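Incident log, structure service

09:12 report received: a user says their structure output differs between two submissions of the same chain.
09:20 pulled the input from the user's history:
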Amino acid sequence: MNTAQEIERLAAEIAEAARRSFRGLFANGEHYYYCTLYTTGEGHAPSLSAWSREALELEAARQAEGSDLPEAAMAELIKWSYADSPYCCFGDEYFDEVKQSFQARPSIAELEDKEWNDEFTMRLEAMELAMRMLDAEGLFALSQPREDVCVLAEVMPPDEGNTDIALRLNRAESPAMQAWLAEAAE
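09:34 re-ran on a clean worker, output below:
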């Protein structure tokens, strides 16, 4: 199997898991502005995270309660944080097959520089393609206008390549993308 076929096969698996997760999440009727698949710098299987305007308001109030920051400042601080979202790892149970597929691939930790980079890039490209597939289906416009959602495939901790992926997955002039570029881009 060549690399393009591997990417497409892995992307289809990721898209199926993410589709089920996002559909379950969107059933709550909230209005989402951030939907991401994220991985670590070690290229682990992706997980999902998302923020809705409603969840941000509640979470900012909750976190501000035990802090010196007012709610508005807390909201700015956590607005784009995948880890602070109450929806971090939402639907992770749907990713079991994806995790198995990632584990069946060459162990990144044991690869040399070029092979490591090739394997990591392939995994990230599969995540990006999965999000593109879901976007083409209209998934991110189920609870809100698509222009209001920043769709991402990210590496955490943040990597400068995240901005390139974000620009490929979103219209640069969309309100959500403009906000992300101003507030969170690397």
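09:41 both user submissions now match this output. Likely a transient worker issue. Closing.
09:42 reviewer note: The chain has a mean pLDDT of 95. The radius of gyration is 17 Å.
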